Amino acid sequence: MDFGQVLGEVLNPASMLWIMVGVLAGLLVGVIPGLTATVAIALLVPLTFNLDPLHSLLMLTGIFSGSMYSNSITSITLRTPGNPAGAVTILDGYPLALRGEAGRAVGLAAWASVVGGLLSVIALTFLAPPLASIALEFSPAEYFAVGLLGLTTVIAVSGRSVPRAVVATAFGLLIGTVGMDPLVTQSRFTFGQRELTTGIPFLPAIIGLFALAEVFRLAGERHLGSRAVATIGRVLPTRQDLRRTVRPISLGSVIGILVGILPGGGGAMASFLAYGESKRYSRHPEEYGKGSIEGLTAADSANNGVTGGAMVPLLTLGIPGDAVTAVMLGALMVQGIQPGPRLFAGGGDLVYPLFFGMFLANILMFVVAMALAKPLASIAMVPYSILLPGIAMFSFVGAFAATGRVYDLWVALAFGFIGYLMNKFDYSIAAVALGLILGPIIESNLRRGLVMSGGDWSIFVSRPISLGVILLAAALLVFTVVQQRRRRANAEFLVE
Amino acid sequence: MNTRQKMAALAVVGLGLSLTACGTAEGDSTYPSGAVELVIPWDAGGSSDLAARLFGSHLEDALGTTVTAMNIPGANGAQGWADLAASEPDGNTIGLITYDILTNQAMDPSATQLDELDFLMQFEEQPLALYVHSEGDFQSVDEIVEADRQVTFGTSGLGGVFHQGAGLLAQSVDREFSYVPFDGSGGQLTAMVGQHVDAIVISPTAPQQYVEDGTLLMLAVFADERSEAFPDVPTFQELGYDVPAHSSFRGIAAPKGLDDEVRTTLVEALKETYDSPEFQTKAEDLELQLTYLDSEEFTGQLNTMAPTVAELLTNLGLTE
To answer: Does A65 touch chain B (CB under 8 A)?
Structure first.
């Protein structure tokens, strides 16, 4: 299939219409808390039964990209994460909004998402088969190592006290063990509660930690003004901002693509890793957590970099890497298409138009996002009397919509109180989220690895990738600690 | 995603829209008098969900009414089956049945038991098969059975149907394997293709293209006779192993206590759906292995399998 034919398949009214429908639907579900891309795509798959295979895929990938970006809007303006990756967007997006720069944050998040998305599509187009072979190299030992690498991010999200952040991460890891043991039939820490056998539901927990905790904090303020901010600032990114975010966005995109191709990685892990890495290389690490555009764009580009990355194992191996692509696999099978080596070998009649369509979807998303950015960012200017009940309502709707259990409302509320107390005593809540995300990945892969090796721990250091990643994690940890010491010493020197 | 979740999603999307409530017609004695609900005890978007939705959409023509798919996932299907068993036996609620109902019954006495449901038909059956990597240490069943080291089997999850398949082989040759559970059959297959486990037992659809390109070897099928789709692959019996047949299946059930007339209409409509060329074509696209069993045959087969499954799970140390 030559390039002209590819263009012909995509640049026609019907294909463009379905790309548009997908992007708009994605943007819409993204701003509704709890409606993740997985939920939206699962709901829409039955509609694609009678569509042309290309059109159906264009729509579904449009939803994927659109929702990955628009999740950031509620994270920035309302501190309410729409999906797990939103927990990282909040760290710098929300402080920016509080400074009256919600417009800047929303605009830059859109820019970062589009660049991450576009780069990931380019990687998918030209590097899919070699990238897929990386995914195959990853055994439980490598996943365990990557999980450890992720844990070093704790220093980046530690706030003022690293020891307290470590405690918070440990708390996250601990509550991540609640539920059915991954390898034997045994429930853990469920205290006879049937609902807990599937574990602490992640989205309700982080909605509570971030959004409800903030509502409680603001409600307790003695001298609260009538509104948080009176302005949102300009939406279109300035040339200076664009220049400053080149590095974090490139870094974030690459991390997003790499984590995306690993089955089971996901947007949240990519965002955390990108955030931590970009802080390490930043000239202004002190701004992180207080409204750093570098931190924000690193997280958001990683989040959207995952979209193209996750398509790699789906299309080349026929193996879905996450919940979203698992649903897409089903949509493809309904059309009589079995993704995998055969699909690629077959000349790419479907895949190349799809890649080009995904490329267009990202550009279209940027246009629509910019057009809607101003009204959406203006949510940040709503008076507290409306904003606080609004966030509370949004939080509960989000917690409920994620799983549909009333139980999860209680989870959100409980974590709201936990988050409130942690904020008050200066424990990083992002560190809890980190532990919650990485705990199950680290634990199940550690134990899988040990089953595979018959209990021999050397499996984690005898494989080159696994050993390399573990050494990298150790080196980064030492490097960061030394760097922090030196900075602190310098600061004390200056004070004296 | 389940019904409540969908309701929540719809409620959110519909904010600002005014909804008009529709009354249902009461007192009409002919079946079907309203929409029929099809309970799917799995998440939306998975292979079982798609198979059931496809069947449901063609059942609409045969029944002459709307068939609404309802996802009630949770506890390995147990949540959906409990709801199905507890629903009114008026023919307006039917549900998808999969192998896991046998597993649940054996592992959890409080789960829905076979005698609480009326099994109306089976529409699909996939005999499982044993696979190894073409460059792996083991290239035949004999080599696996006689291996002088621990053999690792990747599974789609603890105690699932694929785990049980490997367990059946272990039991019949009287040795132990180590089982590495992954998150779903996708992870299981990746681990096999990436050579991180020695062997897998899985249903044949997904690995087929890896067999065709020479990456994987399909060593034997868990069936009494060779499969029409894979005429070159021997059964375990042929290779001299007394491994019982083992397959995953999908069927339709209703709560116990249907009115005779309703039951007859329903069973006929299900058969008509199965036979319709439109459904057959679509099912082929989805690579379903269509195999029809009527109510009696299906119920009989379930009851025969139940004690075997229970014994196997006990041997694998998975029952409490």
So the answer is: no
